[in-house]
Amino acid sequence: MASSAIGGDDSGGATVSLTVKFSGRTIPITNLSVDSTIKDLKALLQPLTNVLPRGQKLICKGKLLVDGMTLKESEVRDGAKIMLMASQGLHQGDGPILKQAQTRPISRFRIVDTLGREKTEVPVDKNRLDRWKATGVIGLSDYNLKAIPDEVWASGTSARVIELSNNSIRDVPSKIGCLSSLQKLLLAANDIVDDSISWEGIVSLKYLTVLSLEQNHLTTLPSSLGLLTSLRQLNVAKNKLSSLPNEIGLLTKLEVLKANNNRISIIPTCIGDCNALIEVDVSSNLLSELPETMGNLNNLKSLYLSNNGLKALPTVLFKMCLQLTTLDLHNTEITVDVLRQFEGWESFDERRRLKHQKQLDFRVVNSGAFDEGADKS
């Protein structure tokens, strides 16, 4: 990541320029007022380092800098060099932790081609097309595939479920649209990129209820996604998405949205139109706030927000989302003291504790401790 210069001082007072050393990088900070606090400096560093302010330790000339003190009071001079040390786990997005490498299946067969090169192939089963047509289920996960087999297209309108996860598939051609009865399309852990997937073909699948594109290489989702009005589950986790399209609000039957482990910085306000949502996971992104329209999600039960730069929640969240029982705020800036100020907190707190007690009664969890990340100040 390239070094970035940030700063700016509208006060006309004395300013300083600094360099911050972090993880092998040098980050220049220019024209920062000497009256800025160390906490202000940490806030400026957050989007550049993905380290939450409370996870930052700033050291100058061997001295730990204190949040409430100004640069002037801390004797941080112009040209000073500051070292940033990050506490483990206190990162928004994925932080410095690399995603797990995609696992690829062990080759089933090895064949040598005419040039003497070894290649892998999946054996042809002449009866499997008949089975697919009879059951409507095409199961090809962990098959070492680099392309969708032609036999799949021959299944035509009989195909209801296609499981193609954990392969090396790159192209999803427009002919996917010929499977007009398809209800579930599972393409997790492949090599799909923006230019290799035909959204025109996918959005023509009018009966599609489940779409999984988890752990691919997508950087954007098209506005045409809103045409999948039958969709109930959408999984686009572990990609490289920077945003969600506004048209996601047209998915009024959507119950589960998993968009965790991306680079999303803003949730569109139209998310409030997805009033069938029960579970939303946007953890490990770059969110600093959520739209107030999240309060429109009256059926919401689980909301996962960990590893984001959030400092507050929509003010109506607890008041309006009366089904909410799970709220994950690990590694955010939100503390339980902040939550207690929201209207409806007491009712939410009672619901979540009741759910937790039921889990203990049925021995679903192993520990009596109850921690959703906001219990620690």
UniProtKB/TrEMBL annotation:
The keyword Repeat applies. Residues 16-88 form the Ubiquitin-like domain. PROSITE patterns: LRR, UBIQUITIN_2. GO terms for cellular component: cytoplasm. Keywords: Leucine-rich repeat, Repeat. InterPro entries: Leu-rich_rpt (IPR001611), Leu-rich_rpt_typical-subtyp (IPR003591), LRR_dom_sf (IPR032675), LRR_domain-containing (IPR050216), Ubiquitin-like_dom (IPR000626), Ubiquitin-like_domsf (IPR029071). Pfam families: LRR_1 (PF00560), ubiquitin (PF00240). PANTHER family: PTHR48051, RAS SUPPRESSOR PROTEIN 1 (PTHR48051:SF1). This is LRR repeats and ubiquitin-like domain-containing protein. It comes from Pyrus ussuriensis x Pyrus communis. The lineage of its organism: Eukaryota, Viridiplantae, Streptophyta, Embryophyta, Tracheophyta.
